[in-house]
Design goal:
CATH superfamily of the largest domain: NAD(P)-binding Rossmann-like Domain
Structural class: alpha/beta
Radius of gyration: 20 Å
CATH topology of the largest domain: Rossmann fold
Helix content: 25-40%
Largest sheet: 7 strands, mixed
CATH architecture of the largest domain: 3-Layer(aba) Sandwich
Strand order of the largest sheet: 8-9-7-10-13-12-11
Order of helices and strands: EHEHHHEHEHEHEHEHEHEEHEEEH
Strand content: 15-25%
Distance between the termini: 23 Å
Shape: globular
Number of helices: 12
Number of domains: 2
Number of strands: 13
């Protein structure tokens, strides 16, 4: 298929924006027509990201101010929003009204409940009328809905690392009702590109720390999706950690198996759920995923084991927080939405 879709990247100066550009500039079905940044408006794209020099599209385009009418005037058919939560909704509303499809990387449309959003994000949801329309776009679970969606809400990086291992087992009814415990570790790029003291090299290097306790914001979307999969409320604890690497998330989940359930049933649930899915790599029993094997790619690696002494199932995953956890997953959703091969533009190792 030779069709090219005209795309805009709104908020292209951050880490997620940079990864979107990296993937879209070489995507066989994407034509970049608008790249926005308030701070960089008017500057050539390659002056901020010299790594893209020599790519024809990159050499020919400059940052523009994030103006909805100007973005629409470029002929863009879809806009990727790589913006902070609380900001993305402003552009989503206007771009949808202008006839564009929207792929949002922020948290603004991930939750179905405006009340839960307000509870976790500290302010009322500014566009609650769109929550029912938005599709929580975990591509391995919602491909059919993504194909027809105008507003695609990409999952967060931590939730992706948690939901991919857990959802098939909850849907199959293999887990008991004991609380699930989740421990995740993420690279510093997850905090964004803005300069903050807590994320300076000397503050992060040679150090590991937990944060966002007792209730990280991503608890809201994780809980929403776990409850939907199980058909009932699921109790869980989530503790994220900052580790001194640039990119990557490593997650370990501790859950209880229902009485009589075997590891063979766990493996069968995974095989059924992810058959033919190009970016979920099932490593198998007693295999530990390693972030070095997924950074820079859209893969998520999943392993599992059973701790007989504690009677707990161990689920393990690794992904790149900026790719499968953000921009790569957004491009994967773009491919599904426009009928391209799911791995188009994402076949990097």
């Amino acid at each position: 298929m030779s069709q090219k879709v005209k795309v805009a990247v709104v908020g292209a100066s951050g880490y997620s924006g940079r990864e979107l550009l990296r993937l879209l500039l070489l995507h066989p079905h994407a034509e970049l027509t608008a790249v926005t940044s308030r701070a960089l408006a008017g500057k050539p794209l390659t002056s901020e990201f010299p790594r893209f020099r020599g790519i024809a599209q990159a050499d020919a385009i400059s940052f523009m101010a994030p103006d909805i009418d100007a973005i629409a005037a470029t002929g863009a058919e879809v806009a990727f929003l790589a913006l902070p939560h609380g900001v993305a909704h402003q552009f989503a509303v206007g771009l949808l009204a202008a006839g564009l499809r929207v792929i949002d990387l922020s948290a603004d449309f991930r939750l179905r409940s405006a009340e839960i959003y307000a509870d976790h994000y500290g302010h009322a949801h500014p566009s609650p009328e769109l929550l029912a329309e938005a599709v929580y776009a975990l591509p391995e679970m919602r491909a059919a809905e993504i194909r027809d969606a105008r507003l695609i809400a990409c999952p967060g990086c931590y939730p992706t690392s948690v939901l991919v291992p857990l959802l098939p087992l909850l849907k199959a009814g293999l887990l008991d009702e004991s609380p699930i415990a989740v421990s995740s570790m993420s690279g510093v790029s997850g905090a964004g590109r803005e300069a903050k003291t807590a994320f300076l090299f000397c503050e992060c290097n040679e150090s590991v720390r937990s944060y966002g306790i007792p209730r990280h914001r991503h608890v809201s979307e994780i809980g929403q999706e776990l409850d939907l999969a199980a058909g009932q409320p699921v109790k869980f604890t989530f503790v994220p950690h900052l580790i001194p690497v640039n990119q990557g998330i490593c997650t370990t989940i501790f859950a209880g198996l229902r009485e009589g359930v075997t590891l063979e049933e766990v493996e069968a649930a995974y095989a059924t759920a992810y058959a033919g899915r190009p970016f979920v790599r099932l490593l198998g029993r007693n295999q530990s995923p390693d972030t070095k094997n997924v950074t820079g790619t859209n893969f998520i690696d999943v392993g599992w084991a059973y701790d007989a002494g504690a009677g707990r199932l161990l689920l393990l995953s690794a992904e790149d927080n900026l790719v499968k956890g953000a921009s790569g997953q957004a491009v994967q959703n773009f491919n599904i939405a426009f009928g391209f091969a799911e791995n188009a533009g994402l076949q990097v190792v």
